[in-house]
Write a structure and sequence with these properties.
This protein has 2 domains: 124 residues, Jelly Rolls (Sandwich); 129 residues, Jelly Rolls. It is 0% helix and 46% strand. It contains no helices and 19 strands. A hairpin with a 5-residue loop joins strand 5 and strand 6. The protein starts with 10 loop residues before the first strand and ends with a strand.
């Protein structure tokens, strides 16, 4: 019998890693701030059908701690189609902090994959690489579309969430989308630093809400840390299987361990819905 993988996740392929520099493929933003640059190829042709991608981002060249990037992963030759849009990366005081996010999206064998980015700093660069995941005889349900909600291309950030001035008390909801374009089977929550290069240190509990007017808590009390030493928010991404219908209103609120001031207690959120 052939040497077939028996369970999911038995085949992996890297796209974009650079073993000469111990990094990824350098992606360059446009010469205008907050404007996407050209696509750079990560791999000319994938070796097998993948059912998921892990995106790795690090090593920004900007000198300002806190600067925000938005990154697109494209698929196809010549004229790329956006496969995953506006993944957020925030530059930190420690530039070697990497962001990694798994997106359970299908990629056919033989696909060309590429990346482009924008940044608050013109012509800034960042390293991007991918790990493609393939399965065996037992495959998960195929998901082939990722829709982004809340990304703000005007400042390379997301939707602002403010826990308010009272410690340990949930603040008001911020609307991320009034109506989801597509159903969501896997929801990724991305947290961003609001370009805060002098951040204070605190903890926050975050809710994702669903519904109009009086929200119902969909995902309660996700714990994140806002770190002053590295000017960062962690974890960067959290993902959950779910079943959210198209046309749903999605919101976000939080509470903080220390409200410090109106700048340091806030963060941005971006949602990525895969179906």
């Amino acid at each position: 019998m052939g040497d077939w993988p028996q369970v999911d996740g038995q085949r992996f392929e890297n796209a974009g890693a650079n073993t000469t520099t111990t990094g990824g493929t350098v992606i360059t933003a446009a010469v205008s701030a907050n404007t996407k640059g050209s696509y750079t190829e990560l791999i000319a042709s994938t070796a097998f059908h993948a059912h998921g991608i892990t995106v790795n981002i690090n090593n920004p060249t900007v000198s300002v701690s806190g600067d925000d990037f938005l990154i697109d992963i494209g698929i196809g030759a010549a004229t790329e189609e956006v496969l995953i849009s506006n993944l957020h990366f925030g530059h930190h005081a420690n530039a070697q902090i990497a962001h990694t996010v798994y997106v359970p999206i299908s990629v056919p064998a033989g696909s060309r994959l590429s990346a482009r980015c924008q940044c608050e700093t013109l012509s800034a660069t960042v390293d991007v690489s991918l790990v493609l995941h393939g399965g065996g005889f037992i495959q998960p349900n195929a998901l082939n579309r990722c829709t982004t909600y809340g990304a703000n291309t005007a400042d390379s950030g997301g939707v602002s969430v403010d826990p308010g001035a009272v410690n340990h008390t949930k603040g008001a909801y911020s609307e991320v989308t009034a109506s989801t374009t597509n159903p969501i089977k896997f929801l990724i929550i991305g947290f961003a630093n609001q370009s805060n290069g002098v951040r204070g240190t605190l903890r926050s509990l975050v809710d994702i809400g669903i519904g109009a007017a009086t929200e119902e808590v969909l995902i309660p009390n996700m714990l994140i840390g806002l770190e002053g030493t590295t000017d960062s928010v962690s974890p960067k991404y959290i993902g959950y299987p779910c079943n959210i219908p198209a046309g749903s209103r999605l919101t976000c609120r939080s509470q903080a361990s220390d409200t410090i001031d109106a700048t340091d207690r806030r963060f941005d959120v971006i949602l990525y819905g895969v179906d």
